[in-house]
Amino acid sequence: MISTINSLNALLPFLYLIVFTIYTYDFFAEKNLFTNSKRIFLFVTLFVHAFYLMVRSVEFNHPPITTKFEIFSLLAFSVSFSYFILELLTDIRGTGSFIILFSLIFQVVSSFSIEHNYVVPEVLRNRMLGLHVVSAILGYSGFTISAVYGLLFLVLYKNLRNNKFGLIFNRLPSLEILEKLSFYSLVIGFVLLTFAIIIGTIWLPSAFPNFKFYDPKLVGTAFIWIAYGTGIISKYLANWYGKKVIIFSLCGFILTIISLIITSTYSNTFHSFY
Description:
flat; 0% strand
């Protein structure tokens, strides 16, 4: 089983590189050779990655959340899986390379740095904790994808203002569609983060003797949740559209990154296990 895990761990960066290359080529090429088949390559990669995560969880008897490098692999899967679902729902396939690049980077770092021999705290073997963390990671993946679409919106917006109608104009969806993709990704991320918060509120107090509701990571997560929730409500009540929605998405993502860095690096928290 260990040899299978090692083989899959080594294979995944190459699979993501192939998918990223195919999506990138299809974006820049004049002839869209992979328009219909690139989704199949992404599906196969996600299937192999899901199998790897499952086999790893079974072999080591814990969800893949015990070290930052396991979480990086889970992030790689979450980002591409979230994009795959969004692509299926919208049938918009021209933005994949910008999203899958994140998965490629996360998986490369994970595959080259992950270890097998380390002591795992018993609480990390709990499936409820795994569900809590996976939901949170999927939520943050939604925010990441939303921010990427926001950046693409700004690039296209700038090109249109400067009357540049080149490759970006021809390949990217319209500003309206990019805004919708950004907002839908944001809402999906918010719903999944809400689910993670509900699980954490119910289960974490009984699982951790040193649990505190004013724990830095909990406070940071609550701050992120309130910020995004306020923006979603404002979108409908204040009738936000276009650039306002995009600026909110990007500001929310920047705040999320700053909050995660501060709470993970400079604060003592019961969430720290390594």
